[in-house]
Write a structure and sequence with these properties.
This protein has 601 residues and is of the alpha/beta class. The chain has two domains: 323 residues, ABC transporter transmembrane region fold, CATH 1.20.1560; 142 residues, P-loop containing nucleotide triphosphate hydrolases (Rossmann fold, 3-Layer(aba) Sandwich), CATH 3.40.50. It is 61% helix and 9% strand. It has a six-stranded mixed β-sheet, with helices on both faces. Helix 2 runs parallel beside helix 5 and helix 5 packs antiparallel against helix 7. The N terminus and C terminus are likely disordered.
Length: 601
């Protein structure tokens, strides 16, 4: 992807709320209107209870009217039932809207990342990305539904209660709320601190998730190296950082309570002193006074919720900002407008002055030109880091070259849709990727329409069928995360079977037999030789024994083609290839060549 999300300028609260509403909340506005109507019922019933206090005290307890008693009791009961039903309705609706918004966000994030550039995943740890889906969304969960509910229900409740208070005594109402504006500034500062702390907390949780992922995935190596104490120390350090940040956030949020309690206490004391004096002087009835006090006490709860709303909002917005940063990073490797869709490629591939680098000013491929003809087997050899695998990555368009052109059957691959380009490629890498699914589903990955007989045939060709049938459930055996229940050689044969099933016209083999024993390697090489007939094959290999029968061998050295030719020609040159051959065969005569005599054009 083209931009590092960590370098994007932080968005303001207004911008984040506006974007969240326009992109995700607005589509649910009809449900929100219904919820708002129910919130008005809740607010109205709450205010009605406060207003009814005047009747209960003056007409029932003072005037001792039985008729007023029965009337008040029936009204109170009706108000509580209505309030309960309305609360249930608005809670269910807001929960649905909130969860729907977050589910849509998670879908958008996942789709966005899966369609993103490979370079983005190289620059961001999987743990940090997982933290966006789990921790950031969890923070947003309370914000989306909670904040909207608080703004609607608590604001309406407060408005209705203030209406009752103004009806009873507008001067006393103003006196009881005069102190609250003084709390705005410190509460805003508290909100800003919470947002900053929350953002830092989510970053640390992302690092901790990365540590967990790395440690659990590589637990075999951790134990083999005796690094248990080291990993525990690393985990302890991150856990302590998260603890301190979470505690700091809790302490910061808690600072709002003494402010609100002090102001609330001040308002209540003013009301009691002034209102009580009026009752004593006979200028106000006891019922009117208690109706006012009840409204004030009931208003205190939504006021506190609305005051604390800023802290909750800032926590959620910190997570929202991180999610939007991911969604705002757009891939560079995309289909061009009017890109061509190809069916079955012939397999003629040409590199013209290709240069590429992963890091700025550190060229990995330097003006390479090479031609791979239809049906040829071309091998790329050389020292590690010379750029062999990068050439395969460029053919797949995992990356685009900095300069130069790569053509497939005469068409620039950048003008071909990526889906149709990659449907013509079958890649088998030394870094085998398997999924926590059955063997059948792993072999059929990318060829989902394949029937079981076809899958079994591909497994037979990959020398995998026999060991599969020895497993407890055969092709229905679950193989665990990344095939942890299989040996390295078994995993590689599953990957080869996957490529065989795809039956693409172009094969890319990146150390495809590196994890196989001699017996399995021979069987797989024979199967690959059959598969490679009339197909273009590019082989990256360190073991020269596996590519001696290739039509053409390119020796890659420091991003350039140092030598080219077949096996015999390169040995006669007595250059880089001859030296590699001498090193590898000085101690062993092991040789497992491709039998590709039928592929010679």
């Amino acid at each position: 992807m083209s931009t590092n999300p960590n370098n994007i300028k932080p968005a303001t609260t207004k911008i984040l709320i506006k974007r969240l509403f326009i992109e995700h909340v607005r589509k649910h506005v009809s449900w929100l209107i219904i919820a708002l109507s129910l919130m008005m019922v809740v607010a109205g019933t709450t205010a009605g209870l406060a207003f009814l206090m005047e009747t209960i005290l003056d007409d029932v307890f003072t005037a001792k009217s039985k008729q007023s008693l029965y009337f008040a009791a029936s009204i109170v009961m009706s108000l509580f039932v209505a309030k309960g039903l309305a609360t249930y309705g608005q809670t269910v609706i807001m929960s649905f809207v909130g969860q729907r918004i977050l589910a849509d966000l998670q879908k958008s994030m996942f789709g966005h990342l899966v369609n993103g550039d490979l370079s983005f995943f190289h620059n961001h740890s999987s743990g940090a990305l997982i933290a966006h889906f789990i921790n950031d969304v969890e923070k947003m969960r309370g914000t989306v539904a909670g904040v909207i509910t608080a703004i609607g229900r608590d604001s309406l409740t407060l408005i209705f209660l203030i209406g009752v208070m103004f009806y009873q005594d507008w001067l006393l109402t103003l006196a009881s709320f005069f102190a609250f504006p003084t709390a705005i500034l410190p509460l805003v500062k508290i909100g800003k601190k919470i947002r900053k702390v929350s953002a830092n907390t989510q970053n640390e949780i992302g690092q901790f998730t990365t540590l967990l992922n790395e440690t659990f995935t590589g637990i075999r190596h951790v134990k083999a190296a005796g690094m248990e104490d080291y990993e525990k120390s690393r985990a302890s350090t991150l856990i302590e950082k998260v603890f301190k940040l979470v505690f700091r956030a809790a302490r910061t949020k808690a600072a709002a309570y003494p402010i609100m309690e002090t102001l609330g206490g001040t308002a209540i004391v003013i009301v009691i002193c002034y209102g009580g004096w009026q009752v004593i002087e006979g200028t106000r009835s006891t019922g009117t006074f208690f109706s006012f006090v009840t409204a004030l006490l009931l208003a205190y709860d939504p006021v506190k919720k609305l005051v604390n709303l800023n802290a909750q909002l800032q926590e959620g917005l910190a997570a929202t900002e991180r999610v939007f940063k991911i969604l705002d990073v757009h891939p560079k490797i995309v289909d061009q407008p009017n890109a061509l869709r190809i069916d079955e490629a012939k397999g003629n591939i040409i590199f013209e002055n290709i240069s590429f680098s992963y890091l700025e000013n550190v060229p990995l491929i330097d003006k390479i030109s090479l031609t791979i003809k239809k049906g040829q087997t071309v091998a790329l050899v050389g020292h590690s880091g010379a750029g062999k695998t990068t050439i395969l990555n460029l053919i797949c368009r995992f990356f685009d070259p900095a300069s130069g052109t790569i053509t497939l059957d005469g068409t620039d691959i950048r003008k071909i849709t990526m889906s149709s380009l990659r449907s013509n490629l079958a890649l088998v890498s030394q870094d085998v990727t398997l999924f926590n699914d059955t063997i059948k589903e792993n072999i059929a990955y990318g060829t989902k329409e394949a029937a079981l007989p076809e899958i079994q045939k591909a497994a037979n060709h990959a020398a995998a069928h026999d060991f599969i049938m020895e497993l407890p459930d055969g092709y229905s055996t679950m193989i665990g995360e990344n095939g942890v229940k299989l040996s390295g050689g078994q995993r590689q044969r599953i990957a080869i079977a996957r490529a065989m099933l795809k039956n693409a016209p172009i094969l890319l083999l990146d150390e495809a037999t590196s994890s196989l024993d001699t017996k399995s390697e021979r069987a797989v090489q024979e199967a690959l030789s059959n598969l490679m007939q009339n197909r273009t094959t590019i082989v990256v290999a360190h073991r020269l024994s596996t590519i001696q029968s290739a039509d053409l061998i390119h020796v890659i050295d420091e991003g350039r083609i140092a030598e080219s030719g077949n096996h015999e020609e390169l040995l006669q040159l007595n250059g880089a290839y001859a030296k590699l051959y001498e090193i590898q065969f000085s101690k062993t005569n092991h040789k497992i060549p491709f039998d590709n005599q039928n592929m010679k054009s």
